[in-house]
Design brief:
This protein is mainly beta. Helix content is about 10%, strand content about 40%. The strands form seven sheets. Strands 1, 3, 12, 13, 14, 15, 17, 19, 20, 21 and 22 form an eleven-stranded mixed β-sheet that branches. The radius of gyration is 28 Å and the shape is elongated.
């Protein structure tokens, strides 16, 4: 039997989450296997080589490059401080010396007696990666990093901006229909991840940043507010590197869109608990979804074994991803196997969906994505 499967967002009350935390280049792993870590724990570190800066010593001294050895007071490999002499002429009777000073702190990587140029290297930059989630180190990648696992409530969004954060979940909406305005942002939002309803306004975003919030999870945002907030249009490239002072995860889509009942319920059930969140999104090849991870306390849940998803079935929860029902949530009520004509006169496989408002609609299977549980 052939299955119709459409990848979709995962909204799970209980699942095992695994995150691999790797350095951009080889370094030192400082966590150990079977060790317990918090989200903030540094698990690996390395040093990135500093930028290089050329310096024309021969030209500045006014001497032939091949004679540089006569004037150098520093040599290749030496550490240097800003404004420290690298080379100088003897001058006349000790006067009228020409001195070349280092423009930076760092080291001398090379000196060419052909060009008269020195290559100065800025100090290395320390790079540390943390665990991102509270959990247990289950694997160590030598000189690279670790894998961290935890049992968690796991929620994927449809779009996000901003990178990895950790904070305490706090509510700023009473129901999933609420529009989050600036008046609804708590004055003490420091270190909080705020849970909203169907929409967040631009003024509310700005106030959340001002009041110290780390993140906001909400059903939707208007595209004009998002553009004004970022200062540019979002393209098809990956998001997550924005430095706007907050991470935003949209769970449903653009415009006022009621947050799915299950998503809203799960987030509200964990108010006051610590969560990890990442707004990074990629919608082209190698799909990357924004996420909220809420590690479960020991003994809070026993693992629930579930059979793997085999595709769309009757009662499968789905989200419509194209007009005219874009963003609507429902469940599958029928899966006719025959190809059927649609308005474009194309023949496609369809399904029948009962939307959350009770309407039953017939749409192409390609127009929905499964909501994995």
């Amino acid at each position: 039997m052939a299955y119709a499967y459409t990848p979709g967002l995962k909204v799970s009350e209980y699942t095992r989450v695994r995150k691999e935390r790797r350095l951009p280049l080889k370094g030192q792993v400082v966590a150990w296997q079977a060790g317990e870590v918090s989200a903030e724990t540094v698990v690996a570190r390395t040093q990135l080589p500093g930028d290089v800066e050329p310096l024309n010593i021969a030209g500045l001294l006014g001497v032939p490059p091949e004679d540089l050895d006569l004037y150098l007071v520093k040599k290749e490999g030496d550490e240097i401080k800003k404004d420290e002499p690298i080379a100088q002429t003897k001058g006349l009777f000790g006067l009228f010396k020409s001195v070349v000073k280092s423009p930076v702190d760092g080291s001398i990587e090379s000196i060419s007696k052909i060009t008269g140029q020195a290559i100065l290297r800025h100090p290395p930059m320390l790079v540390e990666i943390n665990a991102y989630i509270d959990g247990m180190v289950t694997e160590v990648f030598e000189n690279e990093g670790v894998a961290v696992e935890t049992d968690a409530c796991f929620i994927q969004g449809i779009f996000g901006i901003g990178g990895e954060i950790n904070g305490i979940l706090a509510s700023c909406a009473e129901n999933p229909f609420d529009i989050v305005t600036q008046e609804m942002i708590p004055e003490d939002a420091h270190n909080k991840i705020l849970i909203g309803g169907s929409l967040v306004t631009l003024d509310a975003l700005k106030k959340a940043i001002k009041n110290g919030a780390k993140g906001i999870v909400v059903g939707g945002i208007s595209d004009s507010d998002l553009k004004n907030f970022l200062g540019y249009e979002i393209g098809v490239a990956i998001t997550g590197s924005e430095e706007k002072g907050i991470t935003l995860v949209i769970t449903e889509g653009f415009g006022p869109m009621k947050m799915a009942d299950k998503t809203f319920r799960l987030l509200k059930e964990h108010i006051g608990e610590k969560a990890s969140m990442n707004g990074a999104t990629q919608i082209r090849a190698g799909v990357l979804r924004p996420e909220i991870i809420i590690p479960l306390k020991k003994g809070e849940k026993e693992e629930v074994k579930k059979s793997p998803s085999t595709g769309l079935e009757i009662d499968s929860p789905v989200r419509v991803i194209r007009e005219p029902y874009f963003g609507a949530i429902g469940k599958v009520t029928a899966l006719p196997p025959e190809l059927q004509n649609i308005e474009t006169e194309a023949k496609v496989r369809i399904l029948e969906v009962e939307l959350s408002d009770g309407r039953k609609v017939t749409i192409p299977r390609a127009n929905v994505e499964m909501i994995e549980e």
